[in-house]
Amino acid sequence: MNRSAGRLSRHRRGRLAGAVVLLLGLVAAGSLYSLVSTGATSSASASSTSSNDELVSEGRKLFLVSCSSCHGTNGEGIETLNGDQYGPSLAGVGAAAVDFQVGTGRMPMAQPGQQAEAKPAAFTQDEIDALGAYIASLAPGPAVPDESDYSIADLTEEEQQEAIVRGGQIFLTNCTACHNFEGSGGAMPRGGHAPQIRGVEAKYIYEALLTGPQQMPSFSDGNLTPEEKRDVIAYLDSLDTNTGYGGFGMGGFGPVAEGLFAWVVGIGSMVGFAVWIAAHSTRSKRKKATA
Ligand code: HEC
Ligand code: HEC
What we know:
The cytochrome bc1 complex is composed of a cytochrome b (QcrB), the Rieske iron-sulfur protein (QcrA) and a diheme cytochrome c (QcrC) subunit. This protein is mostly helical. The chain has helices at 2-46, 52-66, 68-71, 94-103, 125-138, 147-150, 157-174, 176-179, 202-211, 226-241, 255-290; strands spanning 78-79, 85-87, 186-187, 193-194.
């Protein structure tokens, strides 16, 4: 009796330890890979982040080349002869608007049209930061939010669930009119459309709320407190991770994060399953032997 209990716990401990070692190994291998693969780009940027002034002047250079044809040489906007706009004034839109518009590939627009579409970004994050610093230097505007503004990772499991529920209610009252019930988007007047907002990176959701792109209203902190913004994002994120039909929205965290995820969870669960099968078959054999 005693002996068999001891053997069981030893057996179990051994299996647990094996799983932990395996997981640690996978995480280590994954992070090493991500370090190596991002090392090349980050070493280039390390030298360029000296002072804000430099960032602003670097941003101004990029702006003159890629943006000034529509937004004017000083970001003041350009009107066409019939009063339409090639590009609106960017004074006061803030770094958050630039990060959203350029980061989601909406800007630079190929040609002025109905609505700028999201597409792969044409600039690196460093260049986007420089452009944002330049625009923010024209007039104060919303800054790029920090991860702590939109992440619920620090909350307890229960608080996270509550945040998601609150977020769902906020979404229902504020967003479904345009974005539809599951955030799948819908048509807007004058030929525009509210895009699907599933799988959009949390930072860009927060920035869209702050800056109100195109026909979307902006949700200032008076309309939606920072905490309410965070909750909506938690809700949208939960839609992406809880889909029952196999679609798994990683939300564009980038190839490294997604690769790491696939590495740890994908391969990890396969190995884990193999270990489980092995453990099971030996245990049932042993049972038969003692029976
Ligand atoms: C071909 C013309 C064109 C070019 C080039 C262009 N834009 Fe725009 N931009 C527009 C138009 C038109 C709008 C407004 C319509 C919209 O938001 O969809 C706009 C809107 C924006 C906004 C949002 C302003 C707000 O009120 O929130 C930002 C920020 C912006 N542009 C930044 C840039 C930056 C940075 C570049 C260069 C990398 C750039 N644009 C290049 C035409 C252009
Ligand atoms: C009046 C209609 C309207 C309402 C209400 C509205 N949106 Fe939008 N939203 C839009 C439109 C239109 C766009 C597209 C803007 C563009 O392409 O420049 C947009 C864009 C977005 C984007 C960017 C998606 C992408 O592809 O990058 C996000 C995220 C977003 N909305 C979230 C929300 C959330 C969350 C709410 C509620 C708190 C909300 N919106 C309320 C009309 C709306």
